[in-house]
Design brief:
Blueprint lengths: L9 E5 L6 H9 L3 E4 L3 E4 L5 H8 L6 E4 L2 H13 L10 E4 L2 H9 L6 E2 L5 H11 L6 E7 L5 H8 L3 E12 L4 H9 L5 E4 L2 H11 L6 H4 L2 E4 L2 H10 L5 E2 L5 H15 L5
Amino acid sequence: MKILPLTGRRILVARPKKQAGGLAQALSALGAEVLHLPLIDIRPPEDWSPVDAALARLPEFDWILFTSANGVAGLLDRMSELGRPPSEITARVAAVGEATAEAAHAHGLAVHLVAGKAVAEGLVEALATTANLENTRMLWPRGDRGRDTLRLELERRGAHVLPVVVYRTLAAEVDAEGLRAIIRAGAVHWIALTSPSAAHSLYALLGELVESDAWQRVRLASIGPVTSRALLELGRPADVEGPSPSADALAAAIADFELQQRGQHP
């Protein structure tokens, strides 16, 4: 009987439950026991008026920039609430990575540009090599947290970028003592993190436990460079980083690490 690479490994998936399915399935398929740890909660903005004002000007935009699946859902769900179909979007659509592009496709949008590097800098680079950005009008549906790099870099190249908050990222209610207890007991081998917000929430919950040997024995998996940067700033580099921001890539990266630790080749 073939032993799967993650057999015997217990992995916490630090993602909102409704978004954790793909990663949980990918890890389970590789033999892992998956525990859910939603560290953040995605909520609508408190005030939709800036979004609604942007939607009233929708034909004016040359591009719509999506930097997360949550940004796609936030904008398209609001349009649906207002009785406006996706077909009203006539601007070209750019996505920061394949997962975001897939979310746009799922909402019925054609995606004209997908950044090869799934970070803001990658999207800037892709746009700059595709079009003349001077006086280009861009709508950026985004969350209330995160870097402003995308807007700053595009405006430096002459574009006009309108960021609108279509979702908020809040700390989820978590049993902090329960989390600390399973880490002290060595009952979890990996924590998979898919956003900087989740990384910061995790460290806030751990408190002084981050100085313990028990915490150092837990492996950290990051979905991409922005999350990895947040972990490094918090004092601990990721043990693995997914080569692309997708559930399958992150699960495969964890499996490859485990195989290498056993002296096997993926």
